[in-house]
Design goal:
This protein is α/β, with parallel strands linked by helices and about 180 residues long. The chain has a single domain, classed as Rossmann fold. Helix content is about 20%, strand content about 35%. The strands form 2 sheets. A 6-stranded mixed sheet has the order 4-3-2-5-6-7, sandwiched between helices. A 3-stranded antiparallel sheet has the order 1-9-8. Strand 2, helix 2 and strand 3 form a beta-alpha-beta unit. Helix 1 crosses helix 2. The longest helix is centred in the N-terminal third of the chain and has 18 residues. It is globular. The structure holds inosinic acid. Inosinic acid binds next to strand 3, strand 5 and helix 3.
Length: about 180
């Protein structure tokens, strides 16, 4: 199917993201200050830029692992069925774990991943999400730390894609289709 034409309007600047990431990392460092090692689990692929910036601001011994869950069935519609495409390399039983997610939308992905990881018996498991769209929620779940609450817009950039494009934008922008006819 040919891609509809669109432009990206900036929503959150790279500077605002950097300031928020620093503040989140301070809170996380403080919350886990007793740990001998924090396992930071990035959910692929959307969290890869966020996790790279976040771990460099966390002042604790950190180990990084990744998990990939399928979420969007097509480019813009969330699917209710969540599948694990790539599991963690390491064990998390008895460990301090922080799950890092790009966006909590309907909540299905995070709910599934948190239940799965909790069933493995971590000592402590918290979630840090860069973005939250609370108005879209269908499953009751909330990250421990959230970067920004945003309205119901489809966003890209800072690791987040639209049909695998635009992940390399340094800021977060919203997708606006340019072939839409204006409402009267
Ligand atoms: P959920 O299961 O509906 O909460 O979907 C979460 C996942 O859907 C996120 O990790 C993203 O990968 C993707 N997603 C949700 N909203 C957007 C968006 O606005 N742009 C790009 N991907 C999104």
């Amino acid at each position: 199917m040919p891609q509809r034409p669109y432009v990206i309007d900036e929503m959150i600047s790279a500077k605002a993201i950097a300031a928020r990431v620093e503040a989140l990392a301070k809170d996380i460092t403080n919350a886990y200050r007793e740990t001998d090692k924090l396992i930071v689990v990035g959910l692929l692929r959307g969290s890869f830029v966020f996790i790279a910036d976040l771990v460099r601001e966390i002042d604790l011994p950190v180990e990084v692992d990744f998990l990939e869950a399928s979420s969007y069935g097509n480019a813009m519609e969330s699917s209710r069925e969540v599948r694990i495409l790539k599991d963690l390399r390491g064990e998390i039983a008895g460990k301090d774990v922080l799950v890092v997610e790009d966006i909590v939308d309907t909540g299905f992905t995070l709910h599934h991943v948190v239940n799965l990881l909790k069933s493995r018996g971590p000592k402590r498991l918290e979630v840090c999400a860069l973005l939250d769209k609370p108005s879209r929620r269908e499953v009751k779940i909330k990250a421990t730390w959230t970067g920004f609450e945003i309205p119901d817009e489809f966003v890209v950039g800072y690791g987040i894609d639209f049909a695998q494009r635009n992940r390399n934008l340094p800021h977060i922008g919203k997708v606006r289709f340019t072939d839409e006819t204006a409402e009267a």
